[in-house]
Design brief:
This protein is an all-alpha fold. The protein is built from 8 helices and no strands.
C-alpha cells in the first residue's frame, strides 16, 4: 500500500500542476529563496521531525499535504499582489476537493490543512497546532547562512536564519 497515496494524488491534480508550473516560471531567475519542490519537501520533513519529537500526533500525509500546498498561491501573488496565503488557501481547497474518493482527506483534515496554509506567514497567538507546525517549519527551512544572495536580501536580520534552527 502506498503510504503517500493522498499526497501523490495532490501532485497529479491538474490545478496543482498548473499553479506549480506558473510558480516555476515566475521564479526561474530568482536569486532569493525559491518556492519549488525542494523547499516544500524541506518544510514537510522538518515538520514531520518536529511532529515526532513533540509527539503532536499528526499523520504524515496531513503534514506533507500542508507543506506541498502552502506556497501554491505564490504565482497569484506575483500576478495580482494577492497575499499567497489567501490565494493558497482558496486554491488548496479546490485541489483537496478535487481528489478522488480513495485519496480524499476528511473534512477535519482539510480544515486543519487550510488553516495552516492561511497562517503560515504570520503566527497568530491562538494558532492551531498544525498551523504552528507549518509556520515554524517554513521559517526553519530557510538557510540564509548559506545563501549566496543573503547580503542582497530585504529580510530583516531578525528574520534571517543565520544558524541552524530546530
Amino acid at each position: 500500500m502506498d503510504k503517500m497515496r493522498r499526497v501523490n494524488a495532490i501532485l497529479k491534480v491538474p490545478l496543482y500542476r498548473r499553479c506549480y508550473g506558473r510558480l516555476e516560471e515566475f521564479e526561474k531567475e530568482r536569486i532569493f529563496c525559491r518556492h519549488q519542490m525542494p523547499h516544500l519537501l524541506d518544510v514537510a520533513r522538518i515538520a514531520y521531525i518536529l511532529n515526532k519529537e513533540q509527539d503532536l500526533g499528526f499523520e504524515k500525509e496531513v503534514i506533507y499535504a500542508a507543506a506541498i500546498l502552502h506556497d501554491i498561491g505564490k504565482a497569484e501573488q506575483y500576478e495580482s499582489g494577492t497575499p499567497h496565503e489567501q490565494s493558497g488557501e482558496r486554491l488548496a481547497s479546490e485541489i483537496l476537493d478535487s481528489l478522488p474518493a480513495d485519496a480524499a482527506f476528511s473534512e477535519g483534515e482539510k480544515r486543519m490543512i487550510l488553516t495552516a496554509i492561511r497562517g503560515h506567514r504570520r503566527l497568530r497567538t491562538d494558532a492551531e497546532p498544525l498551523e504552528w507546525l507549518l509556520y515554524t517549519s517554513d521559517k526553519a527551512s530557510r538557510t540564509c547562512f548559506a545563501c549566496p544572495a543573503e547580503s542582497k536580501c530585504g529580510w530583516s536580520a531578525e528574520k534571517k536564519n543565520m544558524e541552524l534552527k530546530v
